[in-house]
Amino acid sequence: MNVLVTGGAGFIGSNFVYYQLKNHPEDKVIVVDKLTYAGNLSTLKPIMDKIVFEKVDICDEKEIDRVFREHKPDVVVNFAAESHVDRSIENPNVFLETNIMGTANMMNHCRKYGDIRYHQVSTDEVYGDLPLDRPDLLFTEETPIHTSSPYSASKASADLLVGAYLRTFGLPVTISRCSNNYGPYHFPEKLIPLMIANALADKPLPVYGKGENVRDWLYVEDHCSAIDLIIRKGKIGEVYNIGGNNEIHNIDIVKMICEKLDKPESLITYVTDRKGHDLRYAIDSSKIQRELGWTPATTFPEGLQKTVDWYLANKDWWEEIISGEYQNYYEKMYGNR
Ligand code: NAD
Ligand code: TDX
User: With contact defined as beta carbons under 8 Å apart, do 306 and 183 qualify?
Assistant: First the structure.
C-alpha cells in the first residue's frame, strides 16, 4: 500500500511515519510537508532513505497534482496543519489557508485520482470545552461542534468539508478527533516540551491563568496506533474519538516536570490567561475501543518519564529549534505577559 502522509515532518506526523515503517515495512510512505517553522527535516533524517519526501504545500494545486500522479497513493492521511492555538489568536489567516483550503485541495485530488481513501486528523477542540465541575461529561462523536479559537474553528471547518465530500461526492473518508498528544519531537512551543526546556534552563515556567485548565493527555504512539487501525479497518464515513483517559490540570503537569527534573516549583510563574481559553477537554473513546479494538498502551506516568528522558537525550534536536526564530516568538508571546 502507498501511504501519503502530509505534515510528516511535524510532531505527530513524524511519529506516524516511524510507526508505519516499524509496523508495515512492506508499505511505501510518501511524506508531503511544506517545512514551516513547525516542520523539521532533522526529525526524519535517520529514515530519509526509507521514505519519499516531497517539500510541498498542501494548498499548492499543481504540486499536489504532481505528487498524486508520481506516487499513486492508496490512502492519504492529512496531518498537515497550523496547530498552535496561541499563534491562531495572533494571526488566524494562515490557519484558514492551510487547515481549510489545504484539506479541500487534498480531497479534490483524492477524487480526481479515483476516489482514494482519505483520513482527516482532527482534534477534540472542535467540540469546544467542558465545565471543570462536571467530571461526568465527556465529548462523544455526537457532541455538537462548538469552537473557541481560530485554530479550532479552522479544524472544525475542515471536518465539515470532509463530511460534505462524503455525502456529496461519496469520497471514502474517515475522521479522528484526538486529545492532547505528548512525546518525542513535540515542538517546544507546546506546554510539556516548553516547560521541560525552560526548567532545564532555570527559566520561569509560564502557567496561563491559575493553571486550573484540564487537558486529556495521550502518548503520541497511541494516537499513531489508533490512526493506523482506522485507515486499515475503520468504517468509511465514520468519526472516531481518540483519548487517553488522563485528565490533568495544567499546574499539576508543570509540578510533575519540576519534580522529575529536580527543579524548584518557585520557577512557576502565573501569567495572563489565553484569550478564550478552553477549560476542560475530556474524550469518550469507547467507540474506537469497541469497534476497532484500540486501547492506549502507555500510561501517563510512563509516558511522561519517557518524554522527559527523550528531551534529556535529544537536546541537539530542540536546542537547535529554540535557538533561532523561536526566540522572537517567545519574546513576543511571553515578554510582557
Ligand atoms: P505540528 O505543528 O507539530 O506539525 C505540523 C506539520 O505540518 C509541520 O511539519 C508543518 O511543516 C506541516 N505543515 C504546516 N502547514 C503546511 C502546509 N500548508 N503544507 C504542508 N505541510 C504543512 O502539528 P502536530 O501537533 O503534529 O499536529 C498534527 C495534526 O494533528 C494537526 O492536524 C493537528 O490539528 C492534529 N492534532 C494535534 C494534537 C496535538 O496534541 N498536537 C491533538 C489532536 C489533533
Ligand atoms: O506556556 C504555556 N502555558 C500554559 O499554561 C502553554 C504553551 C500552554 N499553557 C496551557 C494552555 C492549555 O490549557 O497548557 C495547556 C496546553 O496548551 P498547548 O500545549 O498549547 O495545547 P492546547 O492548546 O491544549 O492544544 C493542543 O491540543 C489539541 C494542540 O496544540 C492542538 O494542536 C490540538 O488540537
Answer: yes
